Amino acid sequence: MSLEYIRNTYGVPAYKDVRVRYTGSDGPQEGIIVGALNGYVEIKLDGQLQARPYHPTYGLEYLLPKA
Question: Superkingdom of this entry's organism (predicted)?
């Protein structure tokens, strides 16, 4: 499933290279969207070597540039 599917299904601005803040179990961490996998957003958190899948709405804040 693609980022387009995630955007349409969950109503989130899931685009490649958009920065996000994950506020899950280990406290707030920022990273960048690198793709999609089985309906999940693949995010490479700052300081991590590999991307991991995250649910598009659980604990994610999409950090879009101000217009």
Answer: Bacteria
